[in-house]
Automatic annotation (TrEMBL):
PANTHER family: N-ACETYL-D-GLUCOSAMINE KINASE. This is ATPase BadF/BadG/BcrA/BcrD type domain-containing protein. It comes from the Bacteria. Residues 6-267 form the ATPase BadF/BadG/BcrA/BcrD type domain. Pfam families: BcrAD_BadFG.
Amino acid sequence: MASKFLGVDAGATKTRAVLYDAAGVMLYESIQGHGNIIVNEAIAIQNVANAIAQCLEQVSETDQISLLLGMAGIEISNKSKQVKRSLEIKFPILQQVAIINDGYLGMIAALKGRDGVFVISGTGSVVYGQKQNTLLRVGGYGHLLGDEGSAYWIGYELFKGLTYFIDTKQPVSPFYQAFLTSEGVSEASASDLIRKFYTLTKQEVAEYALWVSHLAENENSEAIRLLKKAARALAKQVKLILNRLDFTPNFLFAFSGSVLVKNPVVLAALLEQLPDVTLLKEVVEPTKAVYYYWMREENRCLQLV
C-alpha cells in the first residue's frame, strides 16, 4: 500500500493539481481553469474536481491518497467545510482532505512545512507567520482596506502624491514631471490623471508599480524613496507577526510576489528593518505544500502520543 500526495493550487487564473509520491517526487499534473470560489463558485469547484479526477486516474485502489487544496477566496466564502465534504463524497479514495487558502498553501511550500514568516507582495499583499501549532495572518484585506506595500499600493501612492502638487500649485518634481510626460499630460492638466485613476481597475493601478520600479533601476531618488516606503509598510506587518508569535532572530523568512521578487530595492529595504533572518530564496512549487503539510501533521500526531 503506497502513500501519495495530491496538491491543488486553485488560484484566480488557473487550477493546478500535482500528484506526488511518498518521497515528494512529482508524478503527474493537471491544469484547469480558475479556482476562485468568490468569482464563480460552481465553475471553480468544477475546475478543481476535474483537476483532481485527472490526477486520481494515475493511482491504484490500494494507494493511500492525502489531498491538500489551496483555494482562492475560501476564507471569505466560509465554505471550506462544504467543499471538503463534497470532495470526500465525490472522491471516496481520498483518505485525508484539508482545505486552506492559496496564500497559506504558498507559505507551507516556501517554508517546507517549517515555522517561519512568509510575505506575499504582488498585486495585493499579505503576511503569514507560523510557530508550532499557531498560524497568524496580517493584512490581506484587499486594496480598499489594506494591501500595504503591494503593487497596487505603490500605484495608489504614485497618484496620491500628484495631488500635493495640484493642491499647492507648486511646480511638480522631476519624478512627477516624468510621470506626466509618460502619460502624455501637461503640468497644467495634471488633474486629468486624477480623473483617470478612478477609471482604472485594480490590476491597471498595480501596473504603475512597474513604471516606478523602472525609474528606481535608473537611480531616480523619488522612485527609490517610494519603493522604500512600500518596504516599511510590509515591515510593519511582519513585525506584528514577530511580536505576536515571539519569534527570535534568524527565523526562517520566505517571500513571493512581483514586488519582492523583481524589486531588489524593496526586498533589501524590508530586510534592513527586520532582525537577522534566515532568508529562503529557493522557489518551491506551491502544490508541493501537500507533502510538507501532511508530513508535519503526521509528526505532530507522533509527538502528542
